Amino acid sequence: MPKAILIHETGGPEVLRFEQYDPGTPGSGEALVRHEAIGVNFIDIYHRMGLYPLPRMPAVIGMEGAGIVEAIGKGVSEVSVGDRVAYAGLPPGAYAEVRVIPAHRLVVVPQNISLRQAAAMMLRGMTARYLLYGCHKVQPGDTILIHAAAGGVGTLVSQWAKHLGATVIGTAGSKEKAEIARSNGCDHPILYREEDFTSRVKEITDGRGVDVVYDSVGRETFMKSLDCLRPMSIMVSFGQSSGTVPPFDIGILIAKGSLFLTRPSLMTYTAGREDLLAHARDLFEVVQNGIVKVQIGKTYPLAEAATAHHDIESRRTTGSTILIP
Fold it and tell me: What is the pTM of this model?
């Protein structure tokens, strides 16, 4: 019988158990996929911790994977048996050797993109796409601030935004990570542990502020990020790796320059099949053309998912992290 990582209760990395698991057979509109690689993301940690509740226990977490279609159910037209496919988003279930998934969530991977690449880039890459085109359409001459610039989303956003003509400012936690950010198109890496990033942003922009802040950190950076924005610009809070943002009086948005605020989700931006395909198509295009390079920082066996989670939470990783069944 195939195996998967299951959680029977929420908690730390120790609740991740490598067990036998019956994925079942695909029903109407579903496909059976044998994974070749699985992406690891902060949303998996939120599910494991219970911050984002799962519908039932025990559960298989994981929102991103790539592999081969082994079987399809009735009425499936999106993919065929033998297709190389990838996905990112609901429903969870990626931390498994084999899984059943709604076929309309799958996209066919071009032959010149490896399945390991696909598993490392679908969630982060399509997130970068909606950040740069959906939340705020980045234009030549824009200046952006991306937190965690050496991370999986940060490296992709930096490369893509640079291609779009933006000046990229990014925060990083060490000199090593700052160099990684710089090598991925970040014009101005800021070592946030050594200097105040708000003051440095104002210095870089001659006091003007940035056109958009992309913040996946949350509690530690949110309020100070608002001070980095020019009037009538936008704060995009798309994650909370340091914890949730506490409640605040929305009047602060007026006081700081009639700011806009959004808390987006990839699942919303790719809910429709056409939207999903558009995000995947744009991502595949920039990767195939060498505009965006997908960097796999660390690779772990599926059985060692707990170690992967521990390393991510300890900020020991850069780029994308994947599991191999």
Answer: 0.91
